[in-house]
Design a protein that fits this description.
- One of its GO terms (molecular function) is DNA binding.
- It holds the Pfam family DUF5753.
- InterPro entries: Cro/C1-type_HTH (IPR001387), DUF5753 (IPR043917), Lambda_DNA-bd_dom_sf (IPR010982).
- This is Transcriptional regulator.
- This protein is α/β, with parallel strands linked by helices.
- About 45% of the residues lie in helices and about 10% in strands.
- The chain is built from 11 helices and 6 strands.
- A 6-stranded mixed sheet has the order 3-2-1-4-5-6, sandwiched between helices.
- Helix 1 runs antiparallel to helix 5, helix 4 runs antiparallel to helix 5 and helix 9 packs antiparallel against helix 11.
- The longest helix has 15 residues.
- It starts with 11 loop residues before the first helix and ends with a helix.
């Protein structure tokens, strides 16, 4: 996928949508008619065809039944390719494919680590390498997938990225001193990006202890969406009450954030300690 081009015209998700549209039009069915058969809304069908929604296994199965595709598994096979995105758990694919690349604003809080969008290769590699049950062959795939997320910074119209992180993360060792120096150098460098803000948060901030999360403000009237982290499986939700709760917590944490100029000074001080 090229930088700044979303979605990738050669991706399985785009092929899924294009073939769905072709078969629907050939059968002279409206999007509403297909939606009724899939058990979803016309808007969801439109998003499947435009590749701005990731299909579910049920979508694929019902489309294979509806259109009688050759062998009966065309859409199911494409779905397996979509779900097999290297280095990314299936539950996170919707966020990576639909939310993060299209967001107008991303707000992020992390109490334990440098946020994924700001991690260097060495830092990310150490995290994945030390993860329980991680296969050695998977580490580089995961590192590559994480670094690829930075492409949103190179878009012609990058989102506004607002990062809050606990002040302790710049002194929490991940890898050796060289890895930490490289990570903090990267933070100091990327902090100059015109649409990016990094603020460290006072460790006494109790509101931040509940865990890491991200809030995405989306275009075209789409509802704000959150991703809340957990050791097993993160939660992605646009439920208004869930979003409101996370936004309130973000604002409570932000009250404990140091100004950007002071944050840079604190990162520089921590960087000097990693000798």
């Amino acid at each position: 996928m090229s930088v700044g081009s979303f979605p990738d015209p050669g991706s399985p998700r785009v092929r899924f949508g294009a073939e769905m549209r072709r078969l629907r039009e050939a059968a002279q069915l409206s999007q509403a008619a297909v939606a009724a058969r899939l058990g979803c809304t016309q808007t969801q069908v439109s998003r499947l065809e435009s590749a701005t929604r990731t299909p579910s296994p049920g979508d694929a199965h019902r489309l294979d039944l509806l259109f009688g595709t050759e062998g009966g598994t065309f859409f199911a096979d494409l779905h397996r390719r979509i779900a097999a995105r290297p280095g990314s758990p299936i539950w996170f694919i919707d966020w990576l494919d639909e939310i993060e690349p299209t967001a107008l604003t991303l707000r992020s809080w992390d109490p334990l680590l440098i946020p994924g969008l700001l991690q260097t290769e060495d830092y990310a590699r150490e995290l994945f390498r030390r993860g329980p049950g991680t296969e050695r062959d998977d580490v580089e795939k995961r590192v590559e997938a994480r670094i690829q997320r930075r492409r949103i910074l190179d878009k012609p119209d990058p989102p506004l990225l607002l990062f809050l992180m606990d002040a302790g993360v710049v002194r929490r060792q991940v890898g050796g001193p060289e890895s930490m120096r490289g990570q903090l150098d990267y933070l100091l460098d990327i902090a100059h990006h015109p649409t990016l803000s990094i603020q460290l948060v006072d460790p006494l901030c109790i509101a931040g202890l509940a865990g890491a999360f991200m809030i995405a403000e989306l275009p075209h009237g789409r509802p704000e969406t959150i991703h809340a982290d957990s050791p097993a499986q993160g939660q992605i939700s646009c439920d208004p009450e869930v979003v409101k709760s996370i936004k309130r917590r973000y604002e409570a944490i932000r009250l404990w954030a140091y100004p950007e100029h002071l944050t840079r000074r604190m990162i520089e001080e921590a960087r000097r300690e990693w000798t």
